[in-house]
Specification:
By secondary structure, this protein is mainly beta. The protein has a single domain, classed as Methylamine Dehydrogenase, Chain H (7 Propeller), CATH 2.130.10.30. About 0% of the residues lie in helices and about 45% in strands. The chain has strands at about 40, 45-50, 55-60, 65-70, 75-80, 85-90, 95-100, 110-115, 125-130, 135-140, 145, 165, 175-180, 180-185, 190-200, 210-215, 225-230, 230-235, 240-245, 265-270, 280-285, 290-295, 300-305, 315-325, 330-335, 340-345, 350-355, 365-370. It has a four-stranded antiparallel beta sheet with strand order 1-2-3-4, with no helix packed on it. Strands 5-6-7-8 form a four-stranded antiparallel beta sheet, with no helix packed on it. Strands 9-10-11-12 form a four-stranded antiparallel beta sheet, with no helix packed on it.
């Protein structure tokens, strides 16, 4: 089971994909209102953005009761991390609500009980967050970071920064992803750029060791989608293959094996995930991964402690990609902590893994996909 920081109700922050992949476009596209619902989750809680631009949230601080977020304009995306929830609005601005740990709200000062603007962010087309840091992608391909600064998450070796800073050393970018201590960006050139911690080879540079600034991951070309998990990275190439590198402690490489401890069983360079073809999107949670295929089906592998593989089990690991039989016509997947979401073409939003809401009291884990009513 991966080591993570546990919050009051037992939720753990993990990587998530906060918006459908933007890769494959000539440049990052302006945000548009979603035509189908999407969701994001982590330790702060769960957020659902509906096609009308409204946002429903289940913060753990609210004892599991849904909250309708009051925003000045329609939301087109969301991201959540350990302390804060973020909302991407239709005008390209970003707002946040929650604790201001590590200046998670992009400014000095106290917490925010209602959404406040993240200063300096304009023309934003994607946001992503995990643990106590966040990234934003601007329409011109620039990437901005704020929050916690450990392990080179800002993209340089400086010990302190302004609250919101541009990540240096990147070409024009079309998609971003971030995990506990490292981040990925997909360039217009179809290459993956990685920075931050590299203890398990999660930067994919052929070695494991110290953190590093942004640089291309060797051996990957014509990439169309990315995801970042706990000490692990994923990419989809134009031919529909899925590639994984970094930790295999939770069977995140999907190769039929699993490292027995955090110090063994990792890949320092991208390796193709066997048994997956025709992939269009990847998502990663806390020790598990998913791939959405062109036929609308979903494969999942890795840690299954809370039912996040979606096949009716809870406990142990799935070391190879497993089809989730109850899902079809899926058009988007994402994951946060030990919770997974899938949107189907009929407009339904499905969830599984740890329950929604998490409070009050203990609720059973959701071991197969269930429709999220909200």
């Amino acid at each position: 089971m991966p080591r993570t920081r546990t919050m009051r109700h037992g939720w753990r922050a993990g990587a998530l994909v906060a918006a459908l992949a933007l890769a494959g476009a000539a440049r990052a596209q302006a945000p548009a209102a979603p035509t189908l619902p999407m969701a994001a989750a982590a330790s702060w809680g769960t957020v659902v953005v509906d096609p009308d631009g409204s946002v429903t949230a289940w913060p753990d601080q609210a004892d599991g009761q849904p909250v309708r977020m009051a925003l000045p304009r329609k939301a087109v995306g969301a991201a959540v991390h350990q302390s804060t929830a973020f909302f991407l609005l239709e005008d390209g601005t970003v707002m946040g609500v929650g604790r201001n740990s590590y200046q998670s709200l992009g400014r000095p000062g106290g917490d925010a009980a209602t959404p406040v603007p993240i200063p300096g962010l304009r023309d934003i087309v994607q946001i992503t967050a995990t643990y106590d840091h966040a990234l934003a992608l601007r329409r011109d391909g620039a990437v901005f970071a704020w929050g916690e600064e450990v392990d080179g998450l800002r993209g340089d070796a400086a010990s302190s920064h302004a609250p919101v800073t541009r990540v240096p050393g990147l070409p024009p970018i079309v998609q971003i992803a971030t995990a506990a201590r490292h981040s990925l960006a997909l360039g217009q050139d179809g290459r993956v750029y990685a920075w931050g911690a590299n203890s398990q080879g999660e930067l994919g540079r052929g070695v494991a060791g110290e953190s590093a600034p942004p640089a291309p991951t060797p051996g990957l070309e014509k990439v169309v989608a990315i995801a970042a998990g706990f000490k692990n990275s994923l990419a989809v190439t134009q031919d529909g293959a899925v590639w994984a590198w970094g930790s295999n402690q939770s069977a995140m490489l999907g190769d039929g094996g699993r490292g027995g401890s955090a110090s063994e069983g990792y890949a320092v360079s991208p390796a193709r995930v066997p048994g997956v073809a025709g992939a269009r999107q990847v998502a990663a949670g806390e020790g598990f991964a998913l791939a959405r295929l062109a036929d609308g089906s979903v494969r999942a592998w890795g840690f299954d402690g809370y039912g996040e593989i979606g096949v009716g089990t809870a406990g142990g690991y799935h070391t190879s990609p497993t089809r989730i039989p109850s899902l079809a016509k899926v058009v988007g997947v994402n994951a946060g902590g030990y919770r997974v979401f899938a949107t189907t073409a009929d407009g339904r939003l499905w969830h599984w893994g740890t329950p929604i809401p998490v409070a009050p009291g203990r609720r059973p884990n959701v071991k197969t996909p269930a429709v999220l009513d909200h």
